[in-house]
Amino acid sequence: MGPLDGIRVVDLSQVWSGPFSTRMLGDLGADVIKLEGPSRPDPERGPMKANPGSGGPYPDDEPGDEPYNRAGRFVEYNRNKRAVALDLKTAEGVEALKELVAGADVVIENFSVGVVQRLGIGYDDLKEVKADIIMVSMPAFGSTGPESSFVAFGPQQECLTGLVGMTGYEEDEPLLTGLFYPDPTVALFAVSAILSALWQREESGVGQHIEVAQREAVIFTMPDSLMQLGLTGSPPGPPANAHPEWAPHGCYRCAGDDKWVAVAVTSDAQWRAMAGLMGRDDLIGDARYDGAQSRIAHRKELDEVVEAWTSLRSPGEAMRELQGAGVPAGAVNNMGDLLEDAHYAERGFFLDIDYSAGVGVHPSLGFPWRFSETPASVRRPAPRFAEHTEEVLRELTGLSEDEIGGLVR
Question: Which of 148, 274, 332, 406 is least buried, going by the fewest C-beta atoms within 10 A?
């Protein structure tokens, strides 16, 4: 039994930011009902049909007979959910949704601004069904203002928040992060807001409409850069891996193909320890490296010295030797490295989940929270398309068998 046991969430969201939010709520014990349109399922499911051998995010690169139930990102973001297909462009579909909302606690959507109002399922519509409902909207640029009608995914958000201007290499073109950082960031903001709203409702009995504007949430994570812009009138620009107060500081090449170690020397004592470890005691008395500001001024030549030492070692070897000398360092891991990492293994972070639709058993991300009395859990894998439509409508609505059959047809 998780901390959100007894909480029901109607999930209208799609792709990443919204579904990742509701996956976390599901992990915490909430009953999450994922709604998709019969002709417009979640885009993360991919195509309804795919050519064998076409590759893509499928197990063994094979889409199989039901590629829409096998897409890797979809099954990762949608565990602990029940799937229902409803056509919200019909009056019957909207009424069925409202029947579900009547027994729910939270409704979440990340459609373009105005879509839910046009469908007749905006906050004002739904609070007539359930007075204390908590509704969460995740518009890209907020629901008001000159850019409110714009649509954006993670890559566009990285550009329009200014994040991309700080993630490239020095004196080079801006670069996307490669992760599409805004999506999971916004998901965490949404979960925090939902938990706060549930707590407040316990105290007041009142629901609310929460807007988590994606652009605003991402900008909120960059306060130092905004302060610099406000105080100096100049944007910070891409720092690469440098630090304004510390050196050596960066990612240094190691032995092997595309292998790296991150090092952050934050004091003179750590620098002396690192110089000794590298067998370069001659650098300790060198005026060019006496004090952080001097090391920063000669950072590029110092980076060459450090990389000459790290390039003879694996990332793990460099990390352990540096940490043993009291120097902050960490191996730069890709996903394959993380799956084999001893620290994650010891903590049981990755979970082996048996997925449906012939996906098989694969590792999945575990939980960032540990509760002794109400632990998070995986109770069901990601659902097949429309898998629970009849089950949910029978269980949670007052619709007759004929009405349910008509919706299914």
Answer: 406
Catalytic residue IDs: 183
- Strand locations in 22-109 (E): 31-36, 81-85, 106-109
Distances (CA, A) of 151 to 47, 113, 174, 395: 21, 9, 22, 36
Please tell me whether residue 33 adopts helix, strand or coil conformation.
strand
Exposed, middle or buried by CB within 10 Å (0-12, 13-18, 19+), for 203?
Answer: exposed
Task: Tokens for 122, please give them.
Answer: 């905006």
Task: Indicate whether 272 pLDDT > 70.
Answer: yes
DSSP state of 149: T
User: Per-residue pLDDT for 65 more than 90?
Assistant: no
On the 0-12 / 13-18 / 19+ scale of CB atoms within 10 A, 384 is: middle
Give CA separation, 54 vs 47, 60, 62, 185, 385, in Å: 12, 11, 7, 31, 21
The DSSP 8-state label assigned to residue 348 in this structure reads: T
Which position has the token pair 């105005």?
114
What is the rounded average pLDDT for all residues in the chain?
93
How many CB atoms sit inside 10 A of residue 114's CB? 13
Peptide bond into 3 cis (omega under 30): no
Above 70 in pLDDT, residue 276? Answer: yes
pLDDT in the model for residue 237 = 80
What is the token pair recorded at 96? Answer: 């069925």
Place of tokens 């200014």: 162
Question: Which candidate, 379, 389, 395, places its Cα nearest to that of 23?
Answer: 379
At 362, the amino acid letter reads H
HSE value, Cβ hemisphere, 13 Å, CA-based, for 302: 30
Tens-digit pLDDT profile for residues 331-366: 999 988 999 998 899 999 999 999 876 788 989 999
Find out whether 187 and 49 touch, Cβ atoms under 8 Å.
no
DSSP 191-257: HHHHHHHHHHHHHH---EEEE--HHHHHHTT-HHHHHHHHHHSS-----TT--SS-SSEEEEE-SST
Helices (H), 245-386: 268-277, 292-297, 299-310, 315-324, 335-339, 342-347
Is 0.85 surpassed by the pTM of this model?
yes
Q: Alpha-carbon distance 190 to 184, whole Å? A: 10
